[in-house]
Amino acid sequence: MSKRVLLEGVSVAYGRTRVLDPVELDLPAGSFTALLGPSGCGKSTVLGAVAGFVSPAGGRVTAGAGPVTGPGPDRGVVFQHYALFPWRTARGNVEFALKRLGLPRAERRRRALAALAEVGLAEGAEKYPAQLSGGMQQRVALARALAAEPEVLLLDEPFGALDTLTRSRMQTLLRELWQRRGTTVLFVTHDIDEALALAQRVVVLGGTPGRVLADHPVPDGPPDPDLRSLIARHLHALPTG
Ligand SMILES: Nc1ncnc2c1ncn2[C@@H]1O[C@H](COP(=O)(O)OP(=O)(O)OP(=O)(O)O)[C@@H](O)[C@H]1O
Fold it and tell me: Can you give the residue ranges of the ABC transporter domain (predicted)?
């Protein structure tokens, strides 16, 4: 299940400050794109525009056949900070997120348990967030997004707070989920190696206001040091070539 996402001339201002110059971005259905850039360049703003949290000052965002006018269950979002309810169990947190879909209780439970199993957390379903490690809490947040069966998955530095080993395990899990589900993925990060390890394509955002500086496909196979240094040059806004 996946949808094409299209940003056409999308610009964003907070008050009178323009933070994003018009962005053109076409994310084909089922693609995995990393949005890479330094802090403050507008990555979360782009993701927020696709999620429907941020209203563009100009241009338009389309997901599938329809314009994005606000958040919707077709687009799941995962943030760096998991924002789990501490008084609900892992299963309770996922079930709660499904309430807005109007699903019957038994179906919410079935989907929650299936999503927790999918992220490797079947055993932790009845635990509370305080009883779970950071990696496990992020798995719950991922399960919460997946349980709604979104066609687009939007991740904003989801593994930024995790230690190196946990982070690498979560990256592997995310790749597997994407390969299995075929969901369109937009992954925000400021880590070039994370972008290259995960995505089929790396879009570099930079400048003030932010704009797209580069857009590179990432070939399958072992890491390509030339591609890495090319993207690094864009990232640090040095002249290329
Ligand atoms: N709600 C807001 N009101 C005013 N300015 C904002 C708001 N949200 C973000 N900004 C500003 O917009 C710019 C882009 O922010 P954004 O969070 O999109 O960048 P980012 O690349 O995701 O940064 P980071 O990697 O630090 O999260 C920044 O200068 C930020 O200070």
Answer: 5-232
Residues 56 and 161 in one domain: yes
161 and 66 belong to one structural domain: yes
Between helix 105-118 and helix 134-147 the angle, nearest 10°, is 130
What is the Å distance from ligand 1's center to 176 Cα?
30
The residue to mutate among 10, 21, 43, having the most atoms of ligand 1 within 8 angstroms of its beta carbon, is 43
pLDDT for the residue 239: 44
Global confidence as pTM: 0.94
Quick one: which H or E segment has residue 225? helix 225-235
CB 135 within 8 A of CB 169: yes
Range of the domain at 55: 1-74+152-241
Residue 122: Cβ within 10 Å count = 12
User: Which parts of 44-158 are beta strand (E)?
Assistant: 58-63, 66-67, 75-79, 152-156
79 located within any domain: no
Tell me which residue has its CA closest to atom 14 in ligand 1: 42
At 223, the pLDDT band (50, 70, 90 cuts) reads confident
